[in-house]
Amino acid sequence: MRVVVDAMGGDKAPREVVMGSVRAAQQFPDDGILLVGDEKVIERELAACGTTPRNITIYHASQVVGMDDPATFSIRQKTNSSITRSVELVASGEAVAVVSAGHTGATVAASTLHLRTLKGVRRPGIAAPIPTRLGTCLVIDVGANIACKPLHLLQYGVMATIYSKYIFGIKNPRVGLLNIGEEDAKGNDLAKETFSLLSNSSLNFVGNVEGREIFDSKADIVVCEGFVGNVLLKFGEGLSMSLLSTIKAEAMKSFWTKLGLFLCKSAFGPLRAKMDFTEYGGVPLLGVNGVCIICHGRSDSKAIQNAVRVALQLSKNKVNEHIVSELEKANVPAANVT
Amino acid sequence: MRVVVDAMGGDKAPREVVMGSVRAAQQFPDDGILLVGDEKVIERELAACGTTPRNITIYHASQVVGMDDPATFSIRQKTNSSITRSVELVASGEAVAVVSAGHTGATVAASTLHLRTLKGVRRPGIAAPIPTRLGTCLVIDVGANIACKPLHLLQYGVMATIYSKYIFGIKNPRVGLLNIGEEDAKGNDLAKETFSLLSNSSLNFVGNVEGREIFDSKADIVVCEGFVGNVLLKFGEGLSMSLLSTIKAEAMKSFWTKLGLFLCKSAFGPLRAKMDFTEYGGVPLLGVNGVCIICHGRSDSKAIQNAVRVALQLSKNKVNEHIVSELEKANVPAANVT
Predict the structure, then answer these.
(1) Distance of CA A297 to the CA centre of its chain
(2) What is the CATH number of the domain that holds A267?
(3) Does the pLDDT at position A86 exceed 60?
(4) Which EC numbers does the record give (chains A, B) (predicted)?
(5) CB–CB of B188 and A147 under 8 A?
(6) Both A134 and A246 in a single domain?
(7) Cβ contacts (< 8 Å) between B274 and chain A: which residues?
(8) What is the pLDDT of residues B43-102, one digit of tens each?
(9) Which residues of B touch A143 (CB under 8 A)?
């Protein structure tokens, strides 16, 4: 199978992205990596790596979408950007998946435009794992769709269930609805209507989940609309960093606390590992006709390598095929098909 | 001035609530505390305190709103509940403020129903401080209004600005709009329309603030609709607890890390203080015609005492009067008056 990597996307591109691609190519010698971007730049970076595995191919793209470019504008204007060319290679069947650490909005827009949605899917959604006390909670959507309807959220529940089953090996994932109270009738109109749809679905729906309860492992999956999910994800990142830096800054103020921090340094290890996005590589944009893995803007070579692994896992486990067949079976009341 | 305290509200009521009220009565001998709830229960708790300051008065209320009662139902059915009686004492002018650690939804509903909104205010909103790296960020609304319109959010900006000026002493508070990107044109319809209103207002508007940026002190105030704010606040609480308990559990696994944690224990102090809701006592429901302080459900006597202090501060600084006059001056485009 062949995976496209947008060599120009991300704060650490092209160096770390190319390096991660080389490692992925070495890790998966039977698969192929298509590196898309400025040919000369990629060749220079490959030379810097000291080796170019034979399963790496370069595809030239003359433009790059900047992090400050508006998403739809850049897709329309920069038709030869590395992200558009990358997605087109999946759309034309030359590759099964695309990996990008570039502009998230542009990646979502390009994928939705060129790959289109899977049969039966109304809107694609990004599923991101949030580390909890005992494991992770998959939150969907975290920013692809900020005009969510109840049916979109129901479909997110279906898609994330398949993803959790085939990628995380969870047999019967518990699906929760992010809400502002535990009681059935809580929340805004979107939450109330979604609650009713989820209750009547074949999903393992466990009811409303409050912000606090995400960490109590009440559900394996939490569905929410993209605006809320995006704010939540970034808020969590900011809060974690703020907490850890406050502890560190305080501990550096005296000899004994500094010594203490040094001694208990290893206690922070599992936490850092949990929070380390480079471990899981990237998050999937579920619902598009092809595999699309969105990486953190600060992705390094390890993150890219792991993102390629995740892309291959999704493709080899036929996650998209399972989503289509599950949606066909799913109990979706016709009245709500909007 | 007289402050009503709902003696029956909160997980630690009536004991801690009555104890906190006694301390507040001693701290503010020139003001009065009206304790509302089951007369016999309050008398018993006052006896347990060993002293009943002469500026404490008991008002009997036979019913209590349970934490599981639906908010509006309980307000309509339990007309003699401690929260309804408390709010009525403010509405009738017998007191200037109400403090409750009980059912938040019921407190908001009773206050909105009996106190009504301040002149010019469309919807009341709850303003909660979130500890950041360098101070706090006041987030409004965190759950009073889950059907927000742009004008509501603009008014939240105005009300929180007054509150920050008179309570926190910030001269010209910077107001931000919670959004999913920094660029002006980002976000859903609500965010886009609110951005335009805030840009044209007399507020010190600093633009969009992403979830992560709340911790970077980009703004003193962040406005958002109540569903998002509520989810965020609870998510933050869950995440903080999850992080700290993970570190502690890991540190307890070996002798050296345990010793290290003991030595650097004091480094966690400022963090705990920042996160300690009992310090700031309670959060205001801004926009109702009277002062309403909502306390955390787990409030102890210290939190109640501080909440009474905050209630008196709001009343003595005439925060509501300033809100009314500021809204009259505010630049609110007529087309958006919805």
Answers:
(1) 12
(2) 3.40.718.10
(3) yes
(4) 2.3.1.274
(5) yes
(6) yes
(7) 246
(8) 999 999 998 999 999 999 988 888 777 777 777 778 889 999 999 999 999 999 999 999
(9) 180
